[in-house]
């Protein structure tokens, strides 16, 4: 089974090829250039480096959201284009589930956080069984909520938590102040989206029957874009 995985949901642009549970190559960039500039050359480089032909790919895994609206659209358009050209299925992988998988061997609850702006974070809470890399128990489904609401859930659950994601530097001081349970923060190399983790999760989801056609794949934005919110506000004022 050969999987091409793509994640452009956050600050990083990341892509990988996994073959029979072996990560053959991965590429991650978090430095100034836009995802539209980076992604396709990155994918081409993966095929050139590994010698794997595009026609050999069995699945295309793509982060399905939430995240940057523009980033998700870039990833979705690329995944759909490749899937249509190769006549292969897409595995939509929830962004926060994939991000949580970076720490799947932790015994703490995993809390990935992405900065959603407007005082909110994209987040969820995931609990992996000790010693296994299977899909986790979802304690809190991925959502867009104020940090204070997330912390209420964490404190009520009473489990130790491990935070990761691009929102951690933004809210770390408040987390340390308000979280009452044991808490820890993932190191930098685990705290951003990684296409290798996304590929692993996509295989678990594929085995669970979650593949879709290119035509049926849609990003999950979780909330309206700023332009859509402004349009609705104008319509409500008329």
Shape: globular
Number of helices: 7
CATH class group of the largest domain: Alpha Beta
Question: How far is the N terminus from the C terminus?
Answer: 55 Å
Query: Can you tell me the CATH architecture of the largest domain?
Result: 2-Layer Sandwich
User: How many strands appear in the DSSP assignment?
Assistant: 10
Helical amount: 25-40%
CATH superfamily of the largest domain: ATPase, nucleotide binding domain
Strand order of the largest sheet: 3-2-1-4-5
Reported by name, the CATH topology of the largest domain is Nucleotidyltransferase, domain 5
- Calculate the mean pLDDT score and round it: 93
Helix- and strand-based class? alpha/beta
Number of domains: 2
Q: TL;DR?
A:
This protein is 37% helix and 28% strand. With 238 residues, it is of the alpha/beta class. The chain has two domains: 2-94 and 193-225, ATPase, nucleotide binding domain (Nucleotidyltransferase, domain 5, 2-Layer Sandwich); 97-190, ATPase, nucleotide binding domain (Nucleotidyltransferase, domain 5).
Features:
single chain; 238 residues; alpha/beta; Nucleotidyltransferase, domain 5; five-stranded mixed beta sheet; 7 helices; 37% helix
Overview of this protein structure:
- This protein has 238 residues and is an alpha/beta fold.
- It has two domains: 2-94 and 193-225, Nucleotidyltransferase, domain 5 (2-Layer Sandwich); 97-190, 2-Layer Sandwich (Nucleotidyltransferase, domain 5).
- Helix content is 37%, strand content 28%.
- The strands form two sheets. A five-stranded mixed beta sheet has the order 3-2-1-4-5, sandwiched between helices. A five-stranded mixed beta sheet has the order 8-7-6-9-10.
- Helix 1 (35-50) runs parallel beside helix 2.
């Amino acid at each position: 089974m050969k999987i091409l995985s793509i994640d452009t949901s956050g600050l990083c642009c990341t892509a990988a090829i996994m073959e029979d549970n072996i990560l053959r190559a991965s590429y991650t960039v978090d430095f100034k250039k836009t995802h539209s500039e980076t992604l396709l050359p990155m994918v081409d480089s993966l095929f050139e480096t590994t010698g794997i032909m595009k026609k050999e790919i069995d699945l295309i895994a793509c982060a399905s959201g939430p995240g940057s609206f523009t980033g998700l659209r870039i990833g979705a358009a690329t995944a759909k284009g490749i899937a249509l050209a190769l006549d292969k299925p897409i595995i939509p992988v929830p962004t926060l589930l994939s991000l949580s998988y970076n720490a799947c061997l932790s015994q703490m609850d995993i809390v990935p956080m992405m900065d959603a702006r407007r005082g909110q974070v994209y987040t969820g809470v995931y609990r992996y069984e000790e010693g296994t890399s299977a899909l986790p128990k979802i304690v809190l489904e991925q959502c867009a909520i104020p940090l204070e609401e997330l912390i209420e859930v964490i404190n009520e659950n009473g489990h130790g938590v491990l935070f990761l994601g691009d929102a951690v530097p933004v809210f770390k001081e408040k987390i340390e102040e308000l979280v009452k349970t044991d808490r820890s923060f993932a190191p930098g190399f685990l705290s951003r989206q990684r296409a290798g983790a996304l590929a692993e999760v996509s295989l678990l989801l594929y085995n669970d029957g979650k593949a879709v056609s290119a035509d049926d794949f849609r990003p999950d934005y979780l909330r309206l874009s700023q332009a859509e919110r402004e349009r609705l506000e104008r319509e409500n004022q008329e």
